[in-house]
Design goal:
Elements (H helix, E strand, L loop, with lengths): L1 H13 L1 H38 L5 E3 L12 H5 L4 E10 L6 E6 L10 E5 L7 E5 H7 L6 E6 L10 E12 L15 E4 L1 H7 L5 E9 L6 H11 L7 E3 H45 L3 H6 L4 H30 L7 H5 L9 H25 L20
Parallel strand pairs: 3-8, 5-7
Antiparallel strand pairs: 1-9, 1-10, 2-3, 2-9, 4-7, 5-8, 6-7
Helix pairs in contact: 1-9, 2-7, 2-9, 2-11, 7-11, 9-11
Length: about 400
C-alpha cells in the first residue's frame, strides 16, 4: 500500500499543474450544474416563501357590489374565532382602469406587507406606490406621473376630479401577482395617508376586508361557512388567496423546470469534456508505467494509484463547484420568482451543495475509471511508441 501512495504522490507532484487544471475544469462544470439546481429549487419555492414572509391574507371579503349580494360587517367578521388578523382596504371609484387603494393598519404590517422593489413608500400628498406588474406594462418608474380621474358620488353634481399621482415607489404585495381576474387586473396604485386626507369624504369607495386566519388554509372551509351564516345564506363574494396562488405558481414552476433541464444539459456536456481530458491525462501518465512495472508493481496497483489522484481531483472540483454555486446564487431566482424572492442575494442551499459535492466526486471517479485502467498497463513500451510529450503538451 505504501508503494501505491508513493506512486500517486510522485505522479501528482510531477504533473501538478495538469491535474489542478483538470480539477478547475471539473469544478466549473459541476458549479454550473449546482448553480442551476440551486436556482431551480429557489425559483420553485419563491412565491410560497414570499407569502409567508410578507404575511399574505388568507381570505379577502368583498363588499356587496350590487343588491344581489350581501356581506357581513367588519365587526361581525372580526369576532369570528378563526380570525387572527383583520384589516380594511379602501378601493376608490375612478374612471380609469386602475385600482387606487389605501390601507388601514394592520394592513401593510401584520397582513399583506409590501415588498419595496424601488424607491420608497408614499408619504406626501399625491404620492403613490405602484404594483410592479402595472409599472412594467405602463413603463412606470420612480418619478412617473399617473393622471387618475376620481369619480364623485353618483347622486352628486360634482364632476370627476383629475389628480396627478406621483410614483415614488415600485412594490410587490401579496395578491398582486399575475394572473388577475378583476377588471383592473394588477393595476394597483397605493395612496399615501396624506393623499387620502386630501381627497376628503366626497369621493366614494368600496371597503374590502382582508383576513389572516389562525391556522391558515386549514381554517378556510369553516371560516367561509361562518361568513355565509352571517348573511343568512345569501350570495356573498370573497377571494381565497390560495386559489390565486395556485394560478401564479404554474408559470414559476415552468421556469424552475427550465433550470433543471439546463442543469442536466450542462452536466452531460461537462462529463463529455471531462472524460476526454481524463483519457488524455491517463495516456500521459501511462508513459511511466513500464518503469514502475519493471520495479514490481502490478496493473491493479498502478490503477489504484491513478484513482487516488482522481479522487483528490474530484474533492478539489467539488470544493470549487460549491464555492461557485454560492457565489452565483444572487443570480437566482429567475423571472417572476425573482420579484417574489423574500431574501435576495447570497443563498447557501446545503441540500444542493451536499448532494452536488458527493455527485461530483463519484462522477469524476466513474468517468476516469476506464481510461485509468487502460493506461495502467505495466508491460514494456512497444517499439515506435510516442516519446514523452513536452511540457506544453502536458
Amino acid at each position: 500500500m505504501t508503494a501505491i501512495f508513493l506512486l500517486a504522490k510522485g505522479e501528482l507532484r510531477s504533473r501538478l499543474l495538469g491535474w489542478l487544471t483538470l480539477a478547475l475544469i471539473a469544478g466549473l462544470g459541476a458549479g454550473a450544474v449546482m448553480t442551476a439546481a440551486e436556482g431551480a429549487r429557489r425559483t420553485n419555492t419563491a412565491y410560497h416563501r414570499f407569502e409567508l414572509a410578507h404575511r399574505s391574507a388568507d381570505v379577502v371579503v368583498y363588499p356587496p357590489f350590487s343588491p344581489a349580494f350581501a356581506a357581513p360587517t367588519f365587526e361581525q367578521i372580526a369576532r369570528l374565532p378563526e380570525v387572527a388578523v383583520i384589516g380594511r382596504v379602501f378601493l376608490y371609484f375612478t374612471l380609469d382602469p386602475v385600482a387606487v387603494v389605501s390601507e388601514e393598519a394592520p394592513v401593510g404590517t401584520a397582513v399583506d406587507r409590501p415588498k419595496l422593489l424601488h424607491g420608497r413608500l408614499p408619504r406626501a400628498v399625491n404620492e403613490v406606490s405602484a404594483a410592479f406588474d402595472f409599472a412594467k406594462r405602463r413603463h412606470l418608474h420612480v418619478g412617473s406621473v399617473v393622471p387618475v380621474h376620481f369619480a364623485s358620488d353618483p347622486s352628486s353634481t360634482t364632476p370627476p376630479r383629475l389628480v396627478e399621482l406621483h410614483v415614488v415607489g415600485i412594490e410587490a404585495s401579496p395578491g398582486e401577482f399575475p394572473p388577475q381576474s378583476s377588471f383592473t387586473g394588477s393595476n394597483w396604485l397605493h395612496l399615501s395617508p396624506a393623499t387620502v386626507a386630501a381627497l376628503g369624504a366626497d369621493f366614494p369607495h368600496f371597503v374590502e376586508t382582508v383576513v389572516r386566519l389562525r391556522n391558515g388554509t386549514r381554517d378556510i372551509p369553516a371560516f367561509v361557512n361562518r361568513l355565509h351564516d352571517l348573511v343568512g345564506g345569501q350570495p356573498q363574494l370573497n377571494a381565497i388567496r390560495s386559489q390565486q396562488s395556485a394560478d401564479v405558481q404554474p408559470s414559476i414552476h415552468l421556469q424552475s423546470v427550465a433550470l433543471w433541464l439546463v442543469g442536466a444539459l450542462l452536466g452531460l456536456v461537462s462529463l463529455a469534456v471531462l472524460s476526454q481530458l481524463l483519457a488524455r491525462q491517463a495516456h500521459v501518465d501511462a508513459l511511466d508505467h513500464p518503469t514502475v512495472g519493471a520495479l514490481g508493481m502490478t496493473r491493479v496497483q498502478v490503477w489504484t494509484a491513478g484513482m487516488l489522484r482522481v479522487l483528490g481531483l474530484g474533492a478539489v472540483a467539488a470544493a470549487v463547484a460549491a464555492a461557485l454555486a454560492v457565489a452565483l446564487s444572487p443570480l437566482t431566482p429567475i423571472g417572476l420568482a425573482r420579484v417574489a424572492e423574500p431574501h435576495p442575494g447570497v443563498m447557501v442551499d446545503w441540500w444542493v451543495l451536499g448532494i452536488g459535492a458527493v455527485a461530483t466526486v463519484v462522477l469524476v471517479a466513474v468517468v476516469a475509471a476506464w481510461p485509468m485502467w487502460r493506461g495502467a498497463a505495466v508491460d514494456a513500451r512497444p517499439a515506435g511508441a510516442a516519446p514523452r510529450p513536452s511540457l506544453l503538451a502536458r
